[in-house]
Amino acid sequence: MAVNVETLEKLQRRITLTLPASEVEGEVQSRLKRLARTVKADGFRPGKVPMSVVAQRYGFSVQYEVVNDRVGRAFADATREAALRVAGSPRITQKDPAPEGHLAFDATFEVYPEVRIGELDAIELERVSTEVTDAAIDRTIEILRRQRRTFAQRPASDGAQEGDRVTIDFEGKIDGEPFAGGKADAFQFVVGEGQMLEQFDKAVRGMKVGESKTFPLQFPADYQGQEVAGKEADFLVTMKKIEAQHLPEVDEDFVKALGLPDGTVDALRADVRKNLEREVRFRVRARHKAAVMEALAKSAELDLPDALVSAETERMVEAARADLKQRGVKDADKAPIPAEIFKPQAERRVRLGLVVAELVRAHGLQAKPEQLQAHIEEMSQSYEKPAEVMRWYLGDRQRMAEVEALVIENNVTEFVMGRARVADKPLPFDELMTPAA
């Protein structure tokens, strides 16, 4: 029988579903009889409770279940017959009056939109490339050295220098009054490594153990502590201890301490190069993906199903609550987080999801088994025990689904880059590695 689908607005549709009342009642009676075999009631043996008692106690809930089941099946059959792709769950309301001998329900729902993607050859993109230089390798090895540095106390006659670890007492006041976070005893930091504001860092240079100094400090207007941002404070600092840092030599012992059995500096440099090249591949790929997704979001035309946007917004709210809980916030699961703040991002996610799905469907960009395997192998190489990481991914469906989503996005990125107007651009290593502000 033809299904009458009523178009309400944009993606919203309505179907009227009718159920023979006799069939519903028959199913209710059948379920009540099965229930009567096991139901318990005071004054009756199990299985001997009268049907009238069973119906009185459970009739309403059983009828609710039967109607829900029947309406759900009827809705699925109707949308399948009408070849509709339903977005989200339908809203079911009972219709009154109904045709004689029937129950009638209106199912109001949204369908997936038609996705119209602009001409890919009109999209302009940059394809960046980055070389891992010897200077980048040197800087990485220097970081490894600093991670394994030691400190030894300087002679009392020496002043604090860049790279020294100093231990100080300090107290700051604004207009003669102390402020929260402005005082500490036996506070340690390394001079010249950006742990303190530049004015503070410069003030302690040259100070000797036992020396005290007072100096003004202007807090930046965008300082994270809003109560002192943009204000000037006077600080009193007393030097308690100065320790000079000692970096390990890059020799066989140092290389072996890093877990490289070869123990040669050349082996270390080769390993650092391999790791940096892998990181460059990941970052270049992520940069290209972000550019492609931005271009697709702008070029595509489609209506967004409210049901999908609402569901995505709710997921983001729950993720925010979970993050608060992980940070130790009390009653994070009840935190009043307004959903509206996530709506623009949710709309963008839904839009991109629909666009990507359309490209995958139209051009066969699904993830292939060998691509999944290769992606997991590539990711696992950055860990100490790659084989265990691979088993960790392969042994869990949810993790594999996440990998599949990444591979599909990579396929879409490569597909679009292969058809767009692409300009090649060399990108310095430091620029690629520095996160965007």
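Above is the first protein from milestone M3; the second protein from the same milestone is given next.
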Amino acid sequence: MSIPAVLSSLSVTLAATTSTANPFLWYVTRAAAVSAYVTLSATVILGLLRSLARVSRLRNTRAIWLLDELHPYLAVLTVAFVVFHLLSLIFDPLIPFSLLNLALPLDQPYRPLPVDLGVLALYGLLVVWLSSWMKRRIAYASWRTLHYTSFIAFLLVTLHGIFAGSDSAEPWMILLYLGISGAVGILVLARIFWPAPQPTSASRVVASRRSR
């Protein structure tokens, strides 16, 4: 048998193997991606609720404690799901993603632009996670500025999921995107237009003493 014939036979065999490969990891990838999106969305929503509680001067200590505890917990859970999603992509034989594909927005083997958005979102999430981890070591103003990256990352993740996710056309996934995006949008508007808290009498006294 000639070399071209051998190569042709080998390519046919590889194609057949790939097409009949066990799709288990592809299901794992999809499940991890949806789970990461849900926990990320919950993290963003809880962060916005905590910010609204601060500016509205909510006195319910139990509610504030719950928000403060759940927000970082869900953030860690999001990290776990994202790592699971990336690892399943690397080991999935159906679509050959490499570490370079996941680290750089270049030469993607599947829906290039939406996947590139996912790579950029990953860097945005890394900025938020690292700044939160170093919160006590950096100035509060710097941490807060870096934390705003979470909104950009959330938008990129949403676009990545809509255009790259194989479940995006499913009714339940459409409702999930609409519901989460609507909730985040309403909370962002509420936070932007919430009236600034008026200074209390005690803070006025402190301010007047400092001005003397």
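Note on the second protein: The radius of gyration is 23 Å.
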